[in-house]
Amino acid sequence: MKIRKIKNDLKEKEKIAEMLIEFRSYLASLKDRKDDMDLQAGIEEVEYYLDKEYPIYTAVKDSNYLGYFILKFDDDAVWLEHFFVREEYRKQGIGSKLFKKAEEVLDELGYVNLYNWVHPNNQRMINFLKKQGYDVLNMIEIRKKFAKEDLKNEIEVGENEFRYN
Questions:
Q1: Residue 35 burial by CB count (10 A; 0-12/13-18/19+): exposed, middle or buried?
Q2: Scanning 27, 52, 97, 152, which has its CA 20 to 30 A from the CA of 81?
Q3: What are the structural domains, with CATH classification, of the chain?
């Protein structure tokens, strides 16, 4: 397996877009929603990140694309904007290798901390980040519910209980 920065060509953008669509679909499922992103929209999103010069790396083995990550710069912070390993390649150490590469890129660029935003229902990613030595820092996003939105889940943050979806 090789982890490398993606090439800026159509074939490579399509391969990343296919995984991006899987990633978006998974995130939507955490909220009991469906995401209908098509390949062209996926390619356009990849192109957006490339235009912004955000690093995109992929794990490839025998021409199979296993996963990818995107780093996003926001002032003096670097966010792990996307982090995805295809279902059939999970639990094989690929995610850990991809994450290690993300931290190496961060270090090469002169940054200290890699920030992660994780949906509270994404227990897989929360457990993964814990294994990588990450912990909750200081963020909680709060908003009013949308009209007709059913907030069925609850989460405890410190001494506060919130409903969320």
A1: middle
A2: 152
A3: 2-139 (3.40.630.30)
Please write the tens of the pLDDT for every residue from 28-44: 888 778 888 999 999 99
Q: pLDDT at residue 137 above 70? A: no
Pick from 161, 141, 28: nearest CA to 153: 161
Q: How confident is the model at residue 140 (pLDDT cuts 50, 70, 90)?
A: low
pTM: 0.85
Residue 4, SS3 per DSSP:
strand
Alpha-carbon torsion, ordered 51, 64, 38, 123, to 10 deg? -90
